[in-house]
Amino acid sequence: MMIPVILSRVFGLGVYKKGIQAQQAEVAFTFDDGPDPRYTSELLDLLKQYDVLATFFVLGSKAEQYPHLTRRIHDEGHQVGIHNFIHKCNLLIFPWKLKRQHINRTADIIEGIIGEYQVSRRRG
User: What is the pTM of this model?
Assistant: First the structure.
């Protein structure tokens, strides 16, 4: 977990850069580990109020448990990405098991809910 933080914050690699890089500053909002029945609706209402789009990296287990929230994320124009099936560090899962039992399974669940295949995958 610390390697990406060090690479992005110390060396400026990835999405985090020190200083102003463009004429107009932009920011990307991402949310992990949902959807959550307590917070996701409130968050979506707030994002809609300010006309802001975000990317939600969902857990397959929670998308399966709360399909109405997953569908709402998508229907309101946000991107739905794959976090994992459950919240577990990928370093603790064999690569073949990760792909088959977590990523592909989550992609199938999301596709069944929103009708689109998702290719955005969060690492870590």
Answer: 0.73
